[in-house]
Amino acid sequence: MGFMDSLKGIAGKVGDTVEKGVKTGSDGYKKMAEKSRLKKEIAQAEAAVQNAYVEIGKKFAAENPENEAYKEFFDAITEKTAEIEKLNAQLFELEDKITCKNCGAALDKNSKFCAKCGEKVEIPEVPAEDVEVVDEEAAPETEEKAEEAAEETSETEAE
């Protein structure tokens, strides 16, 4: 029986050690989760403060556009806003997008109405190009000239 008692004693000690480890791990996890929550709340509060400063700046700029003390900032804002509009126009062209004339939302070129404000989308008409009418009899002559030009281009590229 001594062996069984000894085994029970060892098992009891192992159980106590495991229980202590689990409790320590659990406490560590709780502490880590609480720290994470607090850091998130701090970051949100800091972002709210930054947003308030931005809004103050926007309001001041709108109410004092002629203030000489801030002229360089206002000029930089105007310049960068124009640059952003130009870059957005290039991006929209690559993405086959257009801008709603009413609210400024990005729209697919094939849209009939703006998804944001409901405004009817007016698609600008592309002016028809002046097309030269070619006589059917003159067409073979035109084809020959096109072939000659193509041959000249390929000869030049080969050199």
By DSSP (H or I, 4+ residues per run), the number of helices equals 3
Largest sheet: 2 strands, antiparallel
Q: Low-confidence runs (pLDDT<50, min 5 residues)?
A: none
How many beta strands in the DSSP annotation?
Answer: 2
Spatial shape: elongated
Structural class: mainly alpha
State the order of secondary-structure elements, H for helix, E for strand.
HHEEH
Mean pLDDT across residues = 81
Determine Rg (CA atoms, Å): 37 Å
**Strand percent estimate:** under 5%
In which order are the strands of the major sheet placed?
Answer: 1-2
Distance between the termini: 103 Å
Helical coverage, percent range: 55-70%
SSE inventory with pairings:
Layout: H1 2-63, H2 71-94, E1 97-99, E2 106-108, H3 139-158
Antiparallel strand pairs: 1-2
Structure description:
By secondary structure, the chain is mainly α. It has a domain at 97-125. The chain is 67% helix and 4% strand. It is built from three helices and two strands. It has helices at 2-63, 71-94, 139-158, and strands spanning 97-99, 106-108. Strands 1-2 form a two-stranded antiparallel sheet. A hairpin with a 6-residue loop joins strand 1 and strand 2. The protein starts with a helix and ends with a helix. 1% of the residues are buried.
